[in-house]
Sequence to fold (1121 residues):
Amino acid sequence: MPELTYREALRQALREEMLRDPSVYVIGEEVGRFEGPYKVTQGLFKEFGPRRVKEAPIAEEGFMGIGVGSAMLGLRPVVEIMTLNFILVAIDMVINHAAKVRYMFGGQLKVPMVIRTPGGSGKQLTAQHSQSFEGWFANTPGLKVVAPSNPADAKGLLKSAIRDDDPVLFLENLTIYNQRGEVPDGDYVVPIGLAAVPRVGTDLTIVSHSYATVRALQVAERFAEEGISVEVVDLRSLRPLDMETVVKSVRKTHRVLCVEEGWPTYGVSAEIAARVSKACFAELDAPVERVGGAEVSMPYARPLENAAQVNNEKIYAAARSVLAESGMLKRGILTANR
Amino acid sequence: MPRLSDTMQVGTIARWVKHEGDAVKTGDVLMEVETDKATLELPSYHDGTLAQIVIGDGGTAPVGTIVGILARVGESVESVRIATSPTQAPPAVAAQPPREASNSVPAPVAVATVATSPVVHDVPVGAVKASPLARILAEQSGVDLRTLAGHGSGPGGRIVRADVEAAAHAPAPVQPAGMPVVSAPSGDAFTDEPLNRMRQAITRGMGIAKPGIPHIYLTVEAEMDEALSLRQQINDLSSADPRAKVSVNDLVIKASSLALHTWPAVNAWFLDEAPARIRTWHHVNIGVAVSVDGGLIVPVIRDVPGKSLGQIARETKDVYDRVRSGKPAANDLQGATFTVSNLGAYGTDEFAAVIASPQAAILAVGAASPRAVVHDGQIVVRTTMRITLSADHRVVDGAYAAQFLKELKRLLEHPISLVL
Amino acid sequence: MSTIAPSRTTPDLHVSDEELRRLYRMMVQIRRFEERTEEQYTRDRIGGYCHLNIGEEATVAGTVGSLTSDDYLFGGYRDHGLSLAVGGSPRAVMAELFGKETGQAHGRGGSMHLLDVKRHFLGGWGIVGAQIPLAVGAAFALDYEGRPGAVMCLFGDAAVNIGAFHEGLNLAAIWNLPCVFVITNNLYGMGTSVEMASAEPDLWKRGQAYRMPSERVDGQDVLAVREATQRLLRLAREERQPALLECLTYRYRGHSVADPGKSYRPQEEIDRWRDRDPIVLFEQTLRTRGILDDAAVEAVRAEVEAEVQDAIDYALASPDPDPKDLYLHIYDPKGASDFDRMGEGAPFGELSIRGTNWANGEA
Fold:
């Protein structure tokens, strides 16, 4: 199996879908001659030309609306929003329009559209460019929200999203564009609505998505060295949400930690926590814990930014607290100081 | 509501001896309280005036509830009274604190406020801190979460899965029916030690084979001819005072106390709470199991090694009389460090007794009867008595218990030591 | 607004008699339909917001009445007349206002969200100006697929100050998309006058910033509106040249049925506009040209009266949507299985108290 970066996997999916279906087109800022602000669309303009790789001016609400309107007439637009932060100026088109069309008109119209956008924080990108509010979109009926954490899922889910007859917010991540991984060749499709279990364990379940999954796997490795077995559930899809896989895992480990890059209050982890608390009430041996970004506007200075971001130390500490909640510290399974 | 026994959670005011407005001196009986065991008198611990009766005759309240207010000397009776509903007792709050004075006026003293450890059986299971999984497992495995309350390994003693699983393998000690729980008055000296690694290992190992208190049983047969002879002489000397008449059991009590002095590890409690520890008592209080109508009581004779056989005989009768009359003193039924149970009077040759937790051992004494024994290759008739020690293996090992028994046998067979 | 004089009018007297009668009937139908709608609203048969086209019939008929079957229409929430003007069934429109399963949006949309997919009316939309980028997107799709036809997007005077208007017009212009933008300038955005809201009250001039043909027309003169619209539509279809048309008109009623429409405008102004009632003006023109007489007018009115009454009767008799279908149409039914593993609260089922089987461990 060839090894690709996350961004190459996305590009491969876009290209294959554009070749497969002439109604698929790409629209966004700098997606053409500039070859993509994060180079995801590199080469597509040369191959498919200006008709199918539409270079939009900075007018997110305008070209998001174009995506919705053209999808209503049967096209399959892939709208690239340079980063999730900028979707706010187009949010009316997403929430009030893309998500509503099918229902508001009694099922007579559909919006087969994909909105590709990277979320998360980078290095000192500061308050207006470091956000992860995918939970807002996952809150909205009519939208689907997927957030792959590795190159293979990036390819497989993007193909599914493009073929889906409903609007899909496809959340990428700045930090993992360069991450490499094996990606199946050809028409590799990952169904929307299925979580993955990239690491199997017995003592604790970490539920995460996107970059948080990468971190969760690193933390799980560290726990393995201490003899503690952590299972990682990578949600992949936030709406629909694969609670079946989460519940199955929690029933095995009896302990849950939810990790997300975004603010936890009213966030993805809040939803998981609520659902787990109900579905697994009798299975829990410790309260559900969660880790998210500090609830501040992302500061610029490096030490402040480090303090605000989710990192492996915070995940590790939160995981330990869950384990301690179920007595593993007192029983000597966890060491008191690490 | 004063806490007057280990198992008491609720008490009933049988009768207020003092009335509102009465002057009270330290030691005066304030009231009689009915517990699950007996009716006990509660003395005042302060001089003052009974300012208010909060819970009247016949009223029932949980331990820790304020039942009355005592104004100390110099305090105004009115200033310490608390508001109560005329028909209803105040809410049953455990350890409701006495009112604090907001200035330099001496604080009023609640008649009884006892800092209660978690009491077990009246607490709803739902109020016990436990993880949801622990609850389900407890229900499935028949573990009473209340027996683990506050001692879980989770934060704040919350019970978690592992605690229930451990308890399911080694259920918490259950009181033998009818066997009163003993407790020690504060002030008695003891040494607490956590279980060392070996004791931990023994505890774990025994717990698997023998859940609960892992009893071991050792029996000796003591020749009692000399002891019986000694007893006869003593009783002949003190025939004027029938209350000083020494029984065989009094000899056993005295001998046991001396043997415990030599082998102190037997004179201990096993405290089965996290972390488990062994409390070795510096004094010897011996409980004497006595059958009463419909049950069993265990009057306690305190500081036995320092007492003469005559004192022991008298005290045994005094305590027994008080208990039988239903008016034991507060310490009459608690604080035993070792227990003696004697069924010799019923002709029982030999039996094994169940340890009264948290004590580490109990002695079961059979009848002194003429039996054939071998001396220097000759069969001779001697009056012998079989004594069986039940010991908690978590506390003492067989060899140690055997040496205690050997000493006990030596003392009984050479009874001069008992009167020295 | 100092003047209501249109910047240009070009009365087209070469319209066929049949077309003139069609436009007249359309205007009478919209007027009567809206009057009866207002009545139904007062009888509590219609809920929510309800915005009427009364007074704007010439603008609606002149613009929407000019569309062909290749064209598409997007509108705002004052859309009852639009749906009638594309030839939609008064029954389906009234049933939607009544919230019935037989309505144009099966009772899911209501007054503001009418549509007629078959006749290419792609929606009444509820957010001021937000339909403009959607319409540009539809024009993009026509262009992308090389289809004939153009898109018409109607919006009110208040929409020209919103970002979506400028983004939409700019994108249509730079990409040469076949779209005609129509401002139905009825002088007030709710209670805020155009002079209060717009630094340049000559709204048609906004289009010049995007280098597109822009003009103003007398919105009370159906033939003037029709002529301008057809000219601009032709430009869009044939030259991929977007354009902006401003129609000066007036709504007799308030912003919605709930607004008396009196506090922010003088009675004298309302009376003055009523004196130029578009139906009266058009009727006079047609009578002058001998196309209409008393009998013909009476016949049209009677026919429309019966038609609207029939629509009301139909709506009344129609079934309500079944609450068991609450979750229908949130997602593609084919995608329902995606949500199977979501458990309770999934968009294909009630957020249940008991939870689904697997959530309760019963499976």
